[in-house]
Design goal:
Nucleotidyltransferase, domain 5, 2 domains, 557 residues, alpha/beta, elongated
Length: 557
């Protein structure tokens, strides 16, 4: 073969490779990997394929709002913040990018890597003729090309930049160490809603992408997904057949190419040839067996097990499984709520009502909540298979059963009348209201109220600890199997709030449940009776209380 012919063939082969990379983001990532990560081999997988395909749909205009949830260390930042903009500039050099993370150093890190990739001899030899970087706009936080495309790096706490982009990308908006702070979490959502919502240069064509591991039920991803506008690519580390991810097209963009030259290279691939239609299935998790790994060649069973040891159960559920609420709940476990199986409710010696009140009636305030409980004795232990419970067989302990709940956004006059009506119906032996400002008015009103000729037995309870500390203290009552519920839909609503705490959007009913459990634990020790005489005295005091009453299932509305 002549030298000239060999050179021509090699040149043609390189041109084919270049065109294939311009058409296929995943192929570009694979080919460019050694520039950014020279010390590690490229490892693909279904996660990378899915991310690249969805980002490609963003680039060609079919997806305008995309949330990607994936475990840490699965190349999400490299793919989305480094390779993706460098790839899109090979055929759309005028696009303007705005990247943010919770920490400026992280977004600068990715900006430097993206710029290094573009300036590398490998990239310049293949795509250098498409654009060139502008010298006086070439710094870590911002670099620009001669087609007016730029990549700007900022942070969630970096203030209002005043600039926008065609691609608004947020990578890890929350610091996981602060994810349970309502104030910190709300600040991120306010930043997104008040600042970033106005940063799209062309609202009809620009796109927004949020990439993150989940940390809380109402993190930025959770907030965005409540709008129903976002395509959600959810990739748990272990496959759960009951939560198989299927991405559905939402309000898609319009493909209006004026000339053959305007057709984006990816559209020439078969899988991107036809535009997405609303409600069309884009992708479905191909894994089949429960607990199949997302990226077994990168994170095998051993690596995932090591990662699990470093995380709490709640952290593993959120950050690895992308499910902020663990299957068994968070502090309060779902399995520790006990369903009352009998047709009739138990003989209850006392009825207790617990209130958690809000200030005013408006959409920004919490609900006012009440739960009503029956107190009764029960012999059965939670799990007789556990050896430590054998010594307590046959011993009675006090339990509480949830009889009803109230949970509404109402003004104080309506709440006052509701409380009086409920007191007439249930004739409670005690009404508990937490000693705080929002409960003072209700306490005063009920204290002056007489029903059936008697003053209502309302008590204020002082709880100085945080909700975390309270919930952990109350969890012992649940673990001892002392909290029951009747099988009603409204009971499931109460249970959901308790098992989701602290990740639930609202926690008003949860607060009443915890106050009930703490009151039960402190007034009558729910641990099994032993040589401690104080426990017996408390039991005796309890038995001298009001006459026992029979409460039937029909009364639990």
């Amino acid at each position: 073969m002549e030298v000239g012919t060999a050179y021509q063939l090699a040149h043609q082969f390189t041109e084919i490779q270049i065109e294939n990379m311009r058409r296929d983001l995943r192929r570009f990532v694979q080919r460019a990997w050694h520039i950014i990560e020279p010390g590690s081999r490229f490892i693909g997988g279904i996660h990378l394929d899915a991310i690249c395909d969805h980002l490609t749909y963003v680039s060609i205009g079919d997806i305008r709002n995309l949330v990607i949830n994936i475990p840490p260390r699965h190349t999400k930042s490299l793919t989305c913040a480094v390779f993706w903009p460098a790839w899109e500039w090979t055929w759309l050099p005028w696009t303007q990018w705005l990247f943010s993370t919770y920490q400026k150093e992280l977004t600068l890190r990715d900006s430097v890597k993206c710029r290094a990739l573009i300036r590398s001899p490998w990239y310049q030899q293949r795509f250098g003729g498409v654009f060139s970087l502008v010298g006086d706009m070439n710094i870590k936080s911002r670099f620009q090309n001669n087609h007016n495309g730029y990549r700007l790096a900022t942070s969630v706490d970096g203030g209002n930049t005043g600039e926008g982009g065609h691609r608004i990308v947020v990578d890890d908006p929350h610091n996981m160490r602060e994810i349970n702070s309502d104030v910190k979490r709300a600040a991120v959502i306010d930043w997104w809603r008040d600042t970033m919502s106005t940063r799209r240069n062309d609202p009809k064509r620009s796109a927004r992408v949020i990439i993150a591991q989940r940390g809380h039920h109402m993190d930025l991803c959770g907030y965005a997904l409540t709008t129903g506008m976002w395509v959600h690519l959810n990739l748990p580390g272990y496959f759960d057949p009951n939560r198989r991810c299927t991405t559905i097209a939402k309000d898609t963009g319009t493909r209006d190419y004026k000339t053959e030259k305007d057709i984006p290279p990816p559209v020439r691939l078969k899988r991107f040839a036809e535009p997405l239609k609303k409600d069309q299935i884009i992708w479905q998790d191909p894994r089949q067996n429960k607990d199949d790994l997302l990226a077994p060649d990168r994170f095998g069973q051993r690596e995932m097990a090591e990662l699990a040891l470093e995380l709490t159960e709640r952290g593993f559920a959120a950050q690895i499984q992308q499910d902020p609420v663990a299957e068994g709940g968070n502090i309060i476990k779902r399995k520790h709520w006990r369903k009352w199986e009998d047709a009739e409710l138990p003989v209850c010696s006392m009825v207790v009502q617990v209130y958690d009140t809000a200030f005013e009636e408006n959409e920004d305030n919490d609900y006012s909540a009440r739960t009503t409980w029956g107190i009764f004795e029960h012999e059965e232990v939670l799990d007789p298979r556990q050896p430590w419970t054998a010594q307590y067989k046959g011993q009675k302990r006090l339990c509480a059963i949830l009889l009803e709940r109230y949970n509404e956004r109402v003004g104080f006059p309506d709440l006052r009348e509701e409380a009086k009506a409920s007191a007439r119906k249930w004739n409670p032996d005690v009404i508990l209201i937490e000693k705080k400002a929002s409960g003072h008015s209700l306490y005063q009103e009920l204290k002056r109220t007489r029903i059936h000729g008697e003053t209502l037995p309302v008590r204020r309870i002082k709880v100085s600890d945080s909700k975390f500390v309270r919930t952990h203290a109350a969890s012992l009552v649940f673990e001892r199997g002392c909290m029951f519920y009747v099988d009603r839909n409204w009971a499931q609503e109460v249970i959901e709030q308790t098992v989701q705490f602290p990740a639930a959007e609202y926690d008003d009913m949860h607060d009443t449940v915890i106050l009930m459990a703490l009151w039960l634990r402190r007034r009558w020790n729910v641990e099994y009776l032993d040589e401690d005489d104080d426990d017996i005295d408390l039991m005796d005091q309890f038995k001298k209380g009001p006459a026992q009453r029979r409460l039937y299932g029909g009364a639990a509305r």
